[in-house]
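U., I forgot to send this yesterday:
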Amino acid sequence: MGTGNFRTKFIVNPASANGSTQKLWNQIEGVIRESVGAVDASFTARANHATELTHRALLDGFEMVVGVGGDGTINEVVNGFFNAGSLINPEAVLGVISRGTGSDFIKTLGIPKEIAAASRTLCGHAVKRCDVGRFTCKGHDGSDIERYFINIADFGIGGETVERVNRTTKALGGFVSFFYGAVSTLLTYKGKRVRVRVDDSYEAEKVVQNVIVANGQYFGGGMWIAPRAQVDDGLFDILIIDDMGRLESFRNIVKLYKGAHLDHPKVLYLQGKTVVADSPDVVLLDVEGEQIGRLPARFDIIPAAVKVKVEG
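Result:
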């Protein structure tokens, strides 16, 4: 069937799905090949390698890059679409074969998790032009970091949760791994004092549990954290969650999976194009399931930046 006449490169993270992508690659490739024909694949070997491979593929004239891995891999691929602050090819297309622990990004766009169905999606002509977030923050060594994200970034308890999750096995799957990580972190987490500004419409300094800057709707292995978010409206959905006690946090954690938390009195829901935050405390960032750095940070929306292959 082919991939909609796009010259296509597959970027494969063999360590994804707790290492099973490498073990099962021959079978996975066979399933993909049934739908798209020949598979031109490159394999990642280290952190940020997917960004380098995507960058090279687009400069070599590939028109679609398919990330085979989890949300962290997709994040690296999205970063490879950019060079020196600009898109390498504004018409290039992102495809996704999800092999991750959380697989949160595909939930918002309705991209199938099952490999055969996801492969058939690559053969269609339907694309959605999605917004992308650009952020700057501090690395743990004090260096300046500038990167992009297509789903969700957050800071506070989220950053400490993903640090814990990524230190342990993910063999139990996304929901269990992230739920256990969230509960374990809640037992010891103390709220952080942050100063947050959203566009010119909101500015406050307060003790928070977490601040979410969302383009997509889901994170943390299935938490429906931003149920109103749209990936193509040119706006972030921002949730500022005030500090709360452990008992209150545990009592409300199920609401996060149901998207039923926006009316909680300690949840402030905003929309905006720019979020700026800093803190006297060490506040860690979670960007698409990876612990990238810490505050201070700035987040800016780039409207309609990247085409994504969707069903249709």
